[in-house]
């Protein structure tokens, strides 16, 4: 493990710059903060470019703990990737009021949807995807990633107008699920993306305020993609027009709508149940 004491060090500057979402996205680097986030990445097979520890009792304790966990799993990380930062530098680079003693960053590149679809067998093998159009809040995005993971979906497609997966708030809200299932960031307009899915025999299910009652909806196809829209305006007209079916969540109360993360959880739960994918889970 090597030590950095100067704020002019290029590696320290890079870590501090990752507090900027635009910088993180441009460089396709995800910043992790805290023991859980770092271990989630490591145990999912994502090896950080560097892991940083604060030069204090907390940081040194975490260094030994993470080293022990890596040894148990047979994961080796080169010594020069393990960095000790003075407590003042660590605090400066941290995005939290009370730094947790360990940070890391790793390279994260979303997959290509076209390559994924081309790899699918011609026969209609089961496949469930979540398509998110213009989800703006990183907390909602991370929660939806976590929920899709919990209900055994096979991947998530983001339009380029959605919140960034490189945002630390997205990473935190996903609770490690960002590293558990494929994610595709599409630069195509939503119509083109949905047409690609339909060419691969996916049924497009749109979550809307007016449509089939979710409780009474007929069975979904073996391959299906659930489409959720922006928190304020919902799905675009193009997305609705390209959808095969429009499904609504029945609401007997006086609320006009649900938060997109709440609506997504209900839709994902129902779809997973119909596919027999619902298992025991823990509420936190």
Number of helices: 11
Strand order of the largest sheet: 8-7-6-10-9-11
CATH class wording of the largest domain: Alpha Beta
| pLDDT < 50 stretches | 278-283
Under the CATH scheme, the architecture of the largest domain is 3-Layer(aba) Sandwich
Number of domains: 2
Distance between the termini: 36 Å
Q: Whole-number average pLDDT? A: 92
**Series of secondary-structure elements, N-terminal to C-terminal:** EHHEHEHEHEHEHEHEHEEHEH
Report the sheet with the most strands, covering strand number, pairing sense and barrel closure.
Answer: 6 strands, parallel
Rg calc: 21 Å
What global shape is seen? elongated
CATH topology grouping of the largest domain: Alpha/beta knot
Helix/strand/pairing class, anyone? alpha/beta
User: What's the CATH H-level homologous superfamily of the largest domain?
Assistant: SPOUT methyltransferase, trefoil knot domain
Report the portion of residues in β strands: 15-25%
Give the total of beta strands: 11
Task: Tell me which oligomeric state these chains represent.
Answer: single chain
What does this entry look like structurally?
This protein has 284 residues and is of the alpha/beta class. The protein folds into 2 domains: 106 residues, 60s Ribosomal Protein L30, Chain: A (2-Layer Sandwich), CATH 3.30.1330; 162 residues, SPOUT methyltransferase, trefoil knot domain (Alpha/beta knot). Helix content is 37%, strand content 21%. The chain has 11 helices and 11 strands. A 6-stranded parallel beta sheet has the order 8-7-6-10-9-11. Strands 1-4-3-5-2 form a 5-stranded mixed beta sheet. Helix 3 packs parallel to helix 4. The longest helix has 17 residues. It is elongated. The two termini are 36 Å apart.
